[in-house]
Amino acid sequence: MFRFTTAGESHGRGLVAVLEGIPAGLAVSAERINVELKRRMGGYGRGARMKIESDQIEWLAGVRAGETLGSPIAPSAAARSRVPAPDTRTWSGP
Q1: Assuming Cys at both sites, which of 26, 31, 44, 76 could form a disulfide with 16, CB separation 3.0 to 4.6 Å?
Q2: What percentage of the chain has pLDDT greater than the value 90?
Q3: What kind and span of H or E run contains 77?
């Protein structure tokens, strides 16, 4: 069974996904995905923001040497064009 979940937001620090159910040994390429992300920059949308974003993914888990490992895959795309806002919230834990 294939399952995926996502977290984050395009206007936040970035996006991450977790892909489950992908077998080991499949060839994957961050470069090939990045080419598709770059195509998005010239597309149509609600605003010009996508023309300034230069998203690129990196594998956080599940891929080694260009092949899937059989474990969950976690690609991440940092929001490189984001201007960080000061975070005044604090968390003290349980």
Answers
A1: 76
A2: 45
A3: strand 74-78
| Residue 54: Cβ-neighbour burial (10 angstroms; 0-12, 13-18, 19+) | exposed
**How far apart, in whole angstroms, are the C-alpha atoms of residue 53 and residue 65?**
27
Question: Looking up tokens 């206007």, which residue turns up?
Answer: 11
Q: What is the pTM of this model?
A: 0.70
69's tokens: 């490992």
C-alpha dist (Å) from residue 12 to 31, 41, 65, 78: 23, 18, 29, 9
